[in-house]
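To fix ideas, we now present one chain and its tokenised fold:
***
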Amino acid sequence: MKIGIPREIKAQEDRVGLTPGNVRTLVNNGHEVLVEAGAGVGAGFTDSEYASAGARIEDQPATIWASEMVIKVKEPLASEYDYFHEGLILFAYFHLAPELELTDALLAHKVTAIAYETMVENGSLPLLTPMSEVAGRMAIQIGAHYLEKQNGGSGILLSGVPGVASGHVVVIGGGTVGYNAAKVAVGMGARVTILDVNTGRLAQIEDILNGKVTTLMSNEENIRQVIKDADVVVGSVLVTGRRAPVLVSEEMVQTMKAGSVLVDIAVDQGGNFETTHPTTHQDPVYVKHGVTHYTVANIPGAVPRTSTLALTNATMKFANQIINQGVEAAAKNSETILTGINAYQGHLTHEGVAESQNRDYTPFQDLLSK
């Protein structure tokens, strides 16, 4: 199979779909790999490393996209839609629920879209987990940065010092993102409150973190009360394939302290805060009702070396199955790959995405029988 690795064009996105080591594995297995010039430079991988691994370096994006399969990180942007072609297998993050135009383009060109974020294995999300770990850990250092007075914050040090209270971090959602955010916040010495709808998960987090967090049932009243005292609030609630639930209304944001910080990690799926709109690493924050909003849609892109290695550690297993077996056979042999197929032959094949966009849903298996 011919596999293309394009350079990411999203603002300040320096991750890359495969490492030189991954390329060498594919080439040794008889596949052809095309890498766009400069695709890995931001993550610390040079063109010469890719070439030494057996890749063909190409200057033109169109040549890369003409491949049978394209492996990338972030969802394609509008300027890339013209590269789509029937039968293309595109393996990437898509977060399609709020992306109507991208969905239209995928369906119109009959692209096979396999989304990292909807792939489920034993109840977990193996290709979302590594980036969730990165984003959760980064959320706290981001929040601490924007609490500094010169960055528009209230001047609070999360750790406090002897004789001075530490800052208060509120984490909404106890999944991978939320747990990692809480873990780092506890490590910094902050007071931490974490909310989730699953009391079993809250008990688990409390146990793992040795009781150093306050746990609350996630409901409107508890969220409303706890964010009034918060210095940093992290939104981390996602529903696979669907729009993220709005858990903090604009009226609630208005009750927060001036100079406090919101970090909305669910922004890719629409966000947990009513006041959220996506930003970029070039212009990451805005202030609304006196509260700094950090709503960058690709937070792990700020640490592209770590993120690329963590992501490809997870994706390569499934990429190999798709490349070596083809989409249909791979989906038959792997329930995880099946759950990742969002679009196929001009049909939406993920129920959550279809429901979020009010479109028709066609099970992948139904298309195989035609």
Summary: The chain is about 35% helix and 15% strand.
